[in-house]
């Protein structure tokens, strides 16, 4: 692709790139073509009762020596506030289809103690329940995405949970909520009707799930008066998993029914789960890997593009107005458990490779912003591709966390189309696009660029042609580290951390030099 150059030059100050001939990539951005909104919900999180995701990661209890507010750790809350988490999916995952909400309300010392058979068979103390979840959401400023139990629960149980949470009138359940400390109705922004109902959520066929969906959609109501007026609680149906042909049938079944749905049931979203794994029985390592595994794993993650395109095309057939969102509510890297950890706790390291993987997936969601309006990375703390890791009183943020922090300006911004010759990076038999990029205009009218250099060895010079504004300066952050498998640890928490970049316009051209294996976000000032 040939870019037409006009504009200005940005000299990026904070570069430590090795002396290697940089590849050149031409990129053009047209501010006048800003279009689709990038829904901030694509930066959603997922907190399942799994391993140390909730217990220890969020909840330490009010009597803990770890600084906390009503049992919720202060360090974790502060870190999450900085990434402006839009929504949190809870309580699962597979856990959701075995969760009985009544176990998690009332005085802490009277809570029912159960087991968590999905995840290590450990004790589930139920000390983190509905009220603690909403307190956590209040503290971090996020909305609730509650998954109700379709697999082993009943429509009545789920309907009563919604009444308990959302009813403002003095029903018996609303009074019970008030007696438990919260007179005001809670707001449930998003309702998940089951989880992976084709597998851990009940091994249902598409048709069987569809009949359940209609019943739950009809009877699991939202009573919150503020939301009712605006019809704000969005209902999300179970959708497809990975890439197998049976998922086509699932999406077809739900969307075909949606096309002819009657007033008595409705959905606003179809969930999709897609992890980057490779081989489920011989998973990749999350630390101590080489360039071969780096390139193989990133190649695998790009399957997200085809999956979204495939399921969006099916949805387009039945919902051409794109009323139903594709909700990628479980995504991320799934590696072999760390040696010595409980395999049921899904503990893995988080490296620079994961930061690049996160940027590539977020960019795919952004390019499909018209259909993908929500996503939830799995999972928020201590589990799979986490933002945060904790060990008793210690806490460290991961390279993936920094990507979410750097992308904050893209929340609810308007997508600006970019055209670029991505070039290629090849390692042995794996070839990947060398560069990825997105652009967006924020509410103040400022242009933001995200640029990823996948190549672990060579820097890239980007020449940007910006139409529609006259730029004066730019500033932002770039995230890289010495090695593709560099990680942050409790002892070395800043091994992978963003560095500031400031840039000035020079000579009428925009030129950015990207370090090898880096994620960069800059704002262009007019
Ligand atoms: O995120 C871990 C598990 O992966 C979830 O519980 C389940 O929905 C998926 O299979």
What is this entry, summarized?
With 526 residues, this protein is α/β, with parallel strands linked by helices.
How does this structure look, described?
By secondary structure, the chain is an alpha/beta fold. It has helices at 74-82, 130-140, 155-166, 172-179, 206-219, 225-230, 246-259, 291-301, 303-318, 352-367, 399-406, and strands at 10-12, 23-30, 44-46, 68-69, 72-73, 87-90, 114-116, 122-124, 143-148, 188-193, 234-237, 269-276, 278-279, 282-283, 325-333, 372-378, 388-391, 394-397, 414-416, 418-420, 424-427, 430-433, 435-441, 447-453, 460-467, 473-479, 499-505, 510-514, 518-525. The strands form eight sheets. An eight-stranded parallel β-barrel has the order 3-6-9-10-11-12-15-16, surrounded by six helices. It has a seven-stranded antiparallel β-sheet with strand order 1-27-26-29-24-23-19, with helices on one face. α7 packs parallel to α9 and α10 (352-367) runs parallel beside α11 (399-406). The relative contact order is 0.18. Bound molecules: alpha-L-arabinofuranose (AHR).
Query: What strand order characterises the main sheet?
Result: 3-6-9-10-11-12-15-16
The rounded Rg comes to 23 Å
Q: Tell me the helix content.
A: 10-25%
**Cofactors and ligands:** alpha-L-arabinofuranose
Strand content: 25-35%
- Tell me about the biggest sheet? 8 strands, parallel, barrel
By DSSP (H or I, 4+ residues per run), the number of helices equals: 11
Mean pLDDT: 93
Low-confidence regions: 1-19
Count of beta strands: 29
Spatial separation of the terminal alpha carbons:
27 Å
Rough shape? globular
- Structural class by sheet pairing and helices: alpha/beta
């Amino acid at each position: 692709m040939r870019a037409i150059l006009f504009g200005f030059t940005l000299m990026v100050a904070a570069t430590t790139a090795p002396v290697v001939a940089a590849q050149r990539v031409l990129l053009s951005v047209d501010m006048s073509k800003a279009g689709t909104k990038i829904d901030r919900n694509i930066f959603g999180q997922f907190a399942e009762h799994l391993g140390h995701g909730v217990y220890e990661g969020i909840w330490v209890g009010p009597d803990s020596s770890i600084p906390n507010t009503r049992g919720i750790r202060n360090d974790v809350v502060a870190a999450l506030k900085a990434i402006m988490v839009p929504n949190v999916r809870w309580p699962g995952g597979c856990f959701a289809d075995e969760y009985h909400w009544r176990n998690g309300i009332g005085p802490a010392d009277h809570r029912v103690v159960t087991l968590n058979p999905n995840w290590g068979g450990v004790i589930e103390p139920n000390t983190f329940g509905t009220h603690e979840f909403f307190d956590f959401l209040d503290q971090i400023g996020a909305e609730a995405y509650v998954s109700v139990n379709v697999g082993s629960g009943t429509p009545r149980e789920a309907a009563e949970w919604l009444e308990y949470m959302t009813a403002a009138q003095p029903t018996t359940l609303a009074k019970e909520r008030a007696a438990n400390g919260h007179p005001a109705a809670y707001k449930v922004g998003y309702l998940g009707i089951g989880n992976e109902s084709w597998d851990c959520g009940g091994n249902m066929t598409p048709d069987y799930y569809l009949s359940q969906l209609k019943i739950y959609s009809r009877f699991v109501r939202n009573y919150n008066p503020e939301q009712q007026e605006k019809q704000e609680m969005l209902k999300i149906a179970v959708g497809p998993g990975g890439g197998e042909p049976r998922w086509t049938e699932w999406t077809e079944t739900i969307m075909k029914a949606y096309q002819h749905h009657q007033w008595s049931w409705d959905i606003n979203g179809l969930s999709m789960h897609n992890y980057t794994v490779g081989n489920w029985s011989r998973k990749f390592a999350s630390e101590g890997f080489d360039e071969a595994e780096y390139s193989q794993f990133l190649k695998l993650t790009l399957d997200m593009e085809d999956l979204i395109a495939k399921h969006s095309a099916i949805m387009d057939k039945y919902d051409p107005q794109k009323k139903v969102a594709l909700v990628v509510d479980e995504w991320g890297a799934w590696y072999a458990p760390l040696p010595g950890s409980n395999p049921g706790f899904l503990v893995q390291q988080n490296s620079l490779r994961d930061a690049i993987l996160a940027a590539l997936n977020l960019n795919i969601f952004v390019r499909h912003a018209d259909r993908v309006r929500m996503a939830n990375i799995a999972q928020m703390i201590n589990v799979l591709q986490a933002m945060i890791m904790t060990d008793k009183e210690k806490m460290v943020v991961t390279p993936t966390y920094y990507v979410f922090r750097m992308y904050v300006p893209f929340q609810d911004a308007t997508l600006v189309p970019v055209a670029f010759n991505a070039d290629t990076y090849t390692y042995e038999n794996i070839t990947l696009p060398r560069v990825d990029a997105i652009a967006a205009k924020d509410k103040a009218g400022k242009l933001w660029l995200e640029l990823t250099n996948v190549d672990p060895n060579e820097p890239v010079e980007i020449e940007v042609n910006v139409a529609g504004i006259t730029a004066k300066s730019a500033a932002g952050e770039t995230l890289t580290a010495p090695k593709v498998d560099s990680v942050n640890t409790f002892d070395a928490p800043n091994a992978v951390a963003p560095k500031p970049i400031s840039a000035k316009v020079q000579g009428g051209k925009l030129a950015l030099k990207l370090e090898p294996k880096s994620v960069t976000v800059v704002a262009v000032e007019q």
